[in-house]
Amino acid sequence: MKEFTLTRKKSQLPYAMVLLLILVLFGIYLSRVGKILAVRWIFGIAFGFVLQRSRFCFTAAVRDPVLTGNTSLFRAVLIATTVAMVGFSYIQFAAHLSGCPVPGMIKPAGVHTLLGGIIFGIGAVLSGGCASGTLMRVGEGHLVNMIALVFFIAGSAAGAYHFGWFKENIIKFARPVFLPDILGWGAAFFGQLAFLLILYWLALWWDYNSRAE
């Protein structure tokens, strides 16, 4: 029989301290260039830390319920979406009542939306993560995600370069979709809220039944 010996992992604390020192020094440099750069630097580091510790990834949120039956990340996305929806609805409705233009990125939805979603979904599944998940795993040293990040940037650059053609030949034929204009403010708000609550309940039901099996 083979004998297995436990090897103690080398402490990574010295590397962490050096990295922390580099982050602080670079933050000080940015603060001298421009205060807003230092704020963005701190926010970016904090956001990345939260992503890494929470394992937050939109692709995993949809993938995990199918592969493992775990819906915790999917439910977290639903909660975040609900909070954002309530907040932005208040801002937009307040602007509507005051007679100001309704703020927000109200864009056309059409074939290009469906096609782009399918292509992005396939790429996210093959690479093992969405944009946030890829960046988070690159920071952890995952080689596959480093390769995915290169093609993510290349694809984004190609899409930006050809965006004019897509806009003139496909996007301009689609109409902007803003649910309050279609359903009314009340139906749009409470309809979305009810839909998200139903999805949350279904996620709990799926999680419970998957664990029971």
TrEMBL record:
Pfam families the UniProt entry points to: Sulf_transp (PF04143)
Transmembrane parts of this sequence: 12-30, 36-52, 73-91, 111-131, 143-163, 183-206
Keywords noted in UniProt: Membrane, Transmembrane, Transmembrane helix
InterPro entries reported for this sequence: Sulf_transp_TsuA/YedE
Highest taxon of source: Bacteria
Descriptive protein name: Uncharacterized protein
